[in-house]
Amino acid sequence: MDYLAFCRDTQTLTDESRERIAAFMQKYVPAKGEKEALKNRLYEQDKVKLLDNFSVYVNLVKGDRYLNIPFLDESNAFVSPQIVAENDMLLSSGLWGVGTLFYIPKSDENPHGQIWMKEFKPFQLAHIDIAYFCEARRHFTTAEWIYLIISSMGFQPQLYSERQQTLLMARLIPMVEPRFNLVELAPKGTGKSFVFDNMSRYVAVRSGSISPAVLFYNDSRKTPGLITRYDCVVIDEAQKVKTDSSGELTALLKSYLESGKFGRGSASSISAEAGLVLLANLDLDEQRRPISEEVGIFRTFPNFLRETAFIERFSGLLPGWYLPRISKNTPSQAIGFKGDIFGEILHSLRSDISYRDYVKTNMELQHCDDMRDAKAIEAGASGLLKILFPDKQPTEADFYRYCVNPAVELRQRIRDELCKLDREYLPKTITSKHPDEFQRTHQLPVYYGMETGGGSSAAGVIPFPVGEP
């Protein structure tokens, strides 16, 4: 529907345009109960045009390509080589479009009936030219490019300050950087899950009860879980998530977040590149600061979210309490990339390691000897470099301003929360070669014990100076 509206001839969607779109949908998008009727039309040698999310896979054992047609529950259809050559994304993520299908009955030469697709009109960009995209960046100023990115995310750029725009773009890092694990804590109504729900087909969003079988591997069915099938897995309203009583899910998460590998049941070792994102609601005080900020934001969360060994494995904490609530003026009215195109661009940039090499070569940090800190900041800076400077041509000032310093803040906030929960983590301020205001004004956190007493600074929790028993 969005594609059809996008392709309209006029700026305003008229009643006539709406009627044409409705007629198109009725013609090419049959109701779910019409599957057998559609198959019968094929059987009777009628050509069928169908709007669906088609994909192609290659079976080397049988030596052929096969077409997957979700609406017909058909995974062994055939497609002409020319269609595959012209639409190479059929072989990766799949493509929405109108396919013209016909049926070849079984015969002496053809022991099985075959469904073929002889024509295909994609409703998405069928090929991404990343080199062209990166080169085009050079024709924009940094401010213009940021406006374009924010608008492509669905937000009106003018409503957000530069800092808020940076926080919004940080939500994209797990989509563009392998195994970047992010926690975003924010009050309700700030649009935490909007980008993940609408930006990319490579993102899976789940909430409620999460099982090891769904997330990692279903041993009874021998099927891989979400972590192995998506670029990014988002757990929404994480403060309400119910885990298994055995602790298996937490153990698997720790293993995966640390190494990118896990084992479950008959699958002894599985590798994946998905980033894990936890979204959770947060209560704020009158100054719009987290109520439990002083003693530790994670203290009020479920047990597994309070474990420092678990929290430490996240690359960054996004302070969503700095973002305004979504309003009727929030949706973008400016130019931007179509959501599916932008999602494909982010996906295509994930595997390019040259951005990480650029960061390692050009980034200088102080007080960052911890390996997890260094890797997290490298990954965050690499992700923002892909988003903001895909041509890898930032000035040194812009590189630190838009890539390094935001990544430092995301990781610093993780370290600060660890210090409040566990005296094993000594407080420190990570600084870059060109520190920003956050680094210059950063205050070292205080460890808080869990003992209760009368004179506490927050809800019976007593602060202990670092180094004291």
From TrEMBL:
Domain (BREX system Lon protease-like BrxL N-terminal): give its ranges: 6-103
InterPro entries attached here?
A: BrxL-like, BrxL_N
Protein name, please? BREX system Lon protease-like BrxL N-terminal domain-containing protein
Q: Which organism is it from?
A: Vecturithrix granuli
Q: What domain of life is recorded for the organism?
A: Bacteria
